[in-house]
Structures are given as C-alpha cells and as structure tokens.
Amino acid sequence: MPESNAGRCDVVLVVDDSPETLSVLTAAIESTGATVLVAVAGEAALTLVQEVTPDIVLLDAMMPGLDGFETCRRLKALPGLADVPVIFMTGLTETAHIVQGLEAGGVDYVTKPIAPGEILARIRVHLANARAAQGARLALDSAGRYMFAVDPTGAVRWCTPQAAKLLRDLDPDEAGEPALPPQARAWLRAAGAPLTLAAPDGRGIQLSWIGRVGREEILLRLSRIAGDEIAHLRGRFGLTQREAEVLIWVSRGKASRDIGEILSLSPRTVTKHLEQVYAKLGVENRTSASALVMRALQDRGG
C-alpha cells in the first residue's frame, strides 16, 4: 500500500476484540508503511472516526455489544464515511452471514484465521477502487456537472456541489442533506423518460437517468429548465413551445439525439422542429441559430 499522492500514508482502522488478531494485522499492515488505528469494540470505533477518517476499515463481524454489522451501518451513516470501504473479518462462512455483511455496507469479507498476505492484497484492491471512484467524482465537481448518485431506494449517495444546490432548490425547507423528492423516487423505479420537477420559484428542473454504477449506485443528472428564456424566444421569434425548447438546447450545444432524450422526442421529430425553427429565424444551421439565441437573451437582459 503506497503512500497517497499528497505524501500521506494510508490509514487503516482495525476493529476487533481479539488481541491475537489485532497483533497479527497491526504488524502486517505497518510493514507496508501504513498507519494502523485500533478499536476493540464497535462503540470505540464510532468514537475514533469522529477524530480521524480512515481510508479503509477491517471490521470483525462478531463482537460483544455492538456487532460488526450494526457498527458498519452506523459508520456508513456518518458524514465522510459513506465511501470508505469496509472489509468484514469473520469466522462465519454461511451465505446468510456474508449477505448480511454486504447489505450492511461492506465491500468484501475474509474468513478467520486471517492470512496476512490475503488481507493486504484485498486492502490494496479496495483502496485503489475507492480512490478511482473519488477521482471521478472530483473531476465531475471541478467540471461543474449537475450529477449525483442514489441507491436503489432513492437515497442520495453522493452529489456534485452543483447538483446539491439544485436538489435544495426543489425543497428549500429541507435543512438536512440533499434528498431526492418523493415523486422522483417513484420515477426512479420506472427509469423512463426524463422527469420535470417544479421548484418553488416556478422554474422547472429536469431529472434524467444516466446509468448504473455497480449494483448499488444509479447515476442521475439535473438540468434547470429556463422557462422565462423559452417564453422570451417564443415571443421574439414566433415559435411554438416545443420549437423554443428545442432551440434552447441547440444553443447549449446539445446534439439532436441528446435533445430527443431530454424532451422525450425521437431524433427525427427534433430534426423536423429544427427545420421549422431555421425557417422562422431565417438561418441555415445550428451555429447561426445559437448566435441569434445568445443575442436575443442578451438584449432581454439589457
């Protein structure tokens, strides 16, 4: 386990009530240059992570008091811990127990007695996967993308800052973390055409399905529908509602196929609308149409 790009060593939290297991794991992990944090009970682990955020957690499934399954669920509910991989360590090999660990939020499990070489290999794999996912999310954040991910129940797993703002715009009275509106949860099960949601300010926000990321994450995109801009283009150029909607998305650089997905139209229908738009604007292509849109919206602002 190499050091991170910032020069910081990996931090591994080991949660187990067995002194022998703690001794073996601490020696093996520290030999790689990583830092080991130790907790002998679930409650102690929950207290420790309030001070230090680990990069990965090795968690004993069966402990007195708070067992590993419940400890994992509580860890995953804490801010900043949802994406930290958890590997269960257990003497239990029944399928039901393995499933229970995965459902609690674990990404993997190893059986006791622990083989140091095996656990180190699994740590390397899951740290690499976690960093790749984090890197992708940071890239989305820096690109200003309105994207977020939910689990199959609709609970938000992560979101870019831009998406978080739009989600809060949908329910400004919600003081907690960004959440998917109830009507969107029903839509999620069908995963059909984009869903238009109404914000309290009267402007629409469109929710689109992008795809699945693994088994537990569904990637979604938000986009604000500029209703006032559409109304202005309708009046300025004598367009229908649908023509103005198509034109807005053309001016934002969307291809006909993308516009069709956004507006629930076939690409052929989008092309027909564009033909009418070009005729009404007196232009022959997207570039000229987009230039007129920008000028019209700037004139409105002035």
Name the descriptors.
single chain, 302 residues, alpha/beta, Beta-Lactamase, Arc Repressor Mutant, subunit A, 3 domains, disordered N terminus, transcription, Protein-glutamate methylesterase/protein-glutamine glutaminase, Sig_transdc_resp-reg_receiver
Briefly, what CATH class of the largest domain? Answer: Alpha Beta
Q: Into which percentage range does the β-strand content fall?
A: 15-25%
Strand order of the largest sheet: 2-1-3-4-5
**Architecture per CATH nomenclature, i.e. the level-2 architecture of the largest domain:** 3-Layer(aba) Sandwich
Average of per-residue pLDDT values: 81
Shape: elongated
pLDDT < 50 runs, ≥5 residues: 2-7, 139-144
Task: Tell me the structural class.
Answer: alpha/beta
**CATH homologous superfamily designation of the largest domain:** Response regulator
| Tally of domains | 3
Report the count of strand segments: 10
What is the CA-based Rg, rounded? 25 Å
Distance between the termini: 58 Å
CATH topology of the largest domain: Rossmann fold
Share in helix = 40-55%
Please summarize the sheet with the most strands. 5 strands, parallel
Instruction: Encode the helix/strand succession as letters.
Output: EHEHEHEHEHEEHHEEEHHHHH
